[in-house]
């Protein structure tokens, strides 16, 4: 899901392009859903397909479980992440370092580095 709030409107097209390029290898097995906030119940109810699991980083697992506790058949699966692991926050904090960017992002989006640098510098 690509969540775009009033604070991230300016980067929506770029973020969508990154997702489309990075997910192209999955063909029609992945659909990008757009939403204006991170409310999982609304996101899931607006999807055109059946969602039965949500993956969450360790820092979000509790919140996601609370949001989805009343949805029968829904599971929240944890993606274990430590402070040593990469995150979008870390990539953005190091956005002026192209070597760091290339080492920590999918190679499919490397050609967008100059656009990403402009958007996040």
Characterization of this structure:
The protein has 121 residues and is an alpha/beta fold. It has 6 helices and 4 strands; from the N terminus they run βαβαβαβααα. The protein has helices at 12-23, 40-46, 61-68, 88-93, 98-104, 113-120, and strands at residues 2-3, 34-35, 53-57, 75-79. Strands 1-2 form a two-stranded parallel ribbon. A two-stranded parallel sheet has the order 3-4. Strand 1, helix 1 and strand 2 form a beta-alpha-beta unit.
Secondary structure layout:
Elements lengths: L1 E2 L8 H12 L10 E2 L4 H7 L6 E5 L3 H8 L6 E5 L8 H6 L4 H7 L8 H8 L1
Parallel strand pairs: 1-2, 3-4
Poorly predicted parts: none
Q: What would you call the shape?
A: globular
Task: State the distance separating the first and last CA atoms.
Answer: 24 Å
Strand order of the largest sheet: 1-2
